[in-house]
Amino acid sequence: MSTHTKRESISDLSSPPAGGGQGAVYFIGIGGIGMSALARYFNAKGAKVSGYDKTETALTKKLVDEGIDVHYTDDAELVPKDAALIVYTPAIPANHAGLQYYKTNNYQLVKRSEVLGMITDSTFNICVGGTHGKTTISAMIAHILRHSGYGCTAFLGGIVANYNTNFWLQGESTEANNKNEVCVVEADEYDRSFLKLNPDIAIISAMDADHLDIYGDEKTMQDAFVDFGNKIKTGGVLLSKFGLKRVKEIKVERKLSYSLQNNAASVFALNIEIVEGGYRFDVQLPKSVITNIELKVGGMHNVENVVAAIAVANELKIEEEKIRAAVAAFAGVKRRFEYIIAPQKKEAGAYTQPVLIDDYAHHPEELTALLKSVRSLFPQRLVTVVFQPHLFTRTRDFAKEFATALSIADAVLLLPIYPARELPIDGVTSHLILNDVHSATKKLFNRDEILAWMNEHVQQLNKEFGEVIVIAGAGDIDTLVQPIKTIIEQR
Questions:
Q1: Are 252 and 238 a contacting pair, CB within 8 Å?
Q2: 3-state percent helix, strand, coil for the chain, nearest multiple of 5
Q3: Helix (H), strand (E) at residue 394
């Protein structure tokens, strides 16, 4: 039995710890979006990195391509015995064989949030929290800093299309002589993870009820956001979405607010125009206006997201022309209003293909924003949404709200609930949502039935007004994206 003593710092994991080992880092749940970013960090730092995940995905394949060993069988015989550090996600079951082996043998075990907190302990941190919007806002901020040459290290909860990754080091992205070590971090509220961070700039995009399996009720969850805001360092700044009521409880010297168009906010958009599936607009800052911003990503909520990102760039004194160029070059985040089949103009008076959009939306507020944006961008087109509920508890808590959001679409195709870390709850199925949907067409299908329906549906698309098909959810629904795209293209 080897005993691994706890380190005060993880800045030099490439050297052996006091109790032995070779500086190896092992991840239990390495395929998670947050875990994979940390795995890439240690790999970039020269540590020996490996990990376990339940299933092989496009992301785990990419990690393997980058030199990280990944296995998919939960067997204590397969875990590395020379690991100096074991990082695990709270979503891993307590009876996981690898986790139990390391606990029994006194290895250094830390949650993902603790590692992220240690890594960013001495850096200038831009931390983006919120029950929705945080992935896109953090990706936009990191992209603007990278594209402008300001530079940053980024730990993101989504794959940025421009770079096809959710992580990069500051040295990879800095052209200017920026001496500050800056980290852009997606601050996850699940399991109170974001309370391990120490922001210099904190963004709070939303405090809508979520993760009630962890928090119990909305007030307790919002208490955690107040605690997150109160962790802002002396001299730091809070940027929050205009109208969040509990922001007043956060004791920080400087507070700014942002909004889509409310001119009572510190920063907001004005003169918004829809341009070929994207937007052109101006941004009112506290002391100036940046004109002719072009965002080539769909969704009015993404205009609001980029307003927040621009507010942060302005705080860092990045020049207007560099902000404008960076936003125009932003290609979006995978599964955040991602055009799988982009909007096309009519040919001979008809639309030859539907627009196909893939999105991670898994909360009623996110679904509402997504489908309202689709309606505003494509007001005459028929809208079909394919949605997979995520978690039994979330479905139980928000069934009516999901139904109201989905009813914005003309046709609703529901999949069974994706359980993730949960066991089934008696009486909680996708029917709870379906029963209250008011769309003209509503169906509960399994994966094969949806593909069969789509095969039939694409033969009778509305060519005069056009159609939009939206795939939404946080489970494994993304595996339907390419099959549906193929069905449409082979029509």
A1: yes
A2: 35, 25, 40
A3: helix 392-406
